[in-house]
Design brief:
This protein is α/β, with parallel strands linked by helices and 172 residues long. The protein has 5 helices and 7 strands, in the order αβαβαββαβαββ. β2, α3 and β3 form a beta-alpha-beta unit. The longest helix has 11 residues. The structure holds S-adenosylmethionine (SAM).
Length: 172
């Protein structure tokens, strides 16, 4: 994910990670981005935010804030890069979360969103994950409805021949 992110946006000044957990991706990015000004992680879970904040030797440019994707507590156009890894599948309102990601981005900003995506996963949304998106077609429709364009899909992790984790790179 870090490689895809850096290939997409090699020198972001302000990065937001939505559903950041304890900030593993933010720490990797911070180590590779000496020119970055801030790397902000939001997560819905208080425990994740607390665990992230308490990690030793945390880069001072990394901040953690407890918030949800559906209601991001920042002014519009605050970031030039928004990333999210295996969190989208948990969002209660995926369209609203994507709209918030779009609102966060500057005009030339990019979203890199990675999660479980694959047509073969469609049946898994019928019972346990009703209403959630797990195919690239459904997710592309939501992204466009949220204001994104120029979508580019990239496989990150396969299960044999089947795509399991894919990233979509999108412009605002
Ligand atoms: C599987 S973890 C991934 C964490 C991290 N991105 C990583 O790759 O290590 C999913 C995270 O999404 C967070 N989450 C779930 N729903 C959320 C929402 N609506 N808004 C923000 N974060 C959410 C969870 O609290 C959890 O930390």
């Amino acid at each position: 994910m870090a490689k895809v992110v850096l290939a997409t946006t090699p020198a972001p000044l302000r990065t937001l990670d939505v559903g950041c957990g304890t900030g593993a991706l933010l720490r990797l990015l911070a180590a590779r981005l000496p020119g970055a000004v801030e790397l902000v992680g939001v997560d819905a879970a208080r425990g994740m935010v607390a665990a992230g904040r308490s990690l030793p030797d945390l880069d001072p440019r990394i901040q953690f804030i407890q918030a949800t994707a559906e209601r991001l507590p920042f002014r519009e156009a605050s970031f030039d890069l928004v990333v999210s890894t295996t969190s989208f599948d948990h969002w209660a309102d995926q369209l609203q979360g994507l709209k918030e990601c779009a609102r966060m981005l500057r005009d030339d900003g990019r979203l890199v969103l990675a999660d479980l995506f694959g047509d073969w996963l469609a049946p898994t949304t019928v019972l346990g994950r009703r209403g959630r998106t797990r195919t690239t077609r459904q997710a592309s429709r939501l992204l466009i409805a949220a204001g994104f364009r120029d979508l580019r899909w990239q496989r990150l992790y396969n299960l044999g021949p089947l795509p399991l984790v894919q990233a979509v790179i999108a412009a605002r």
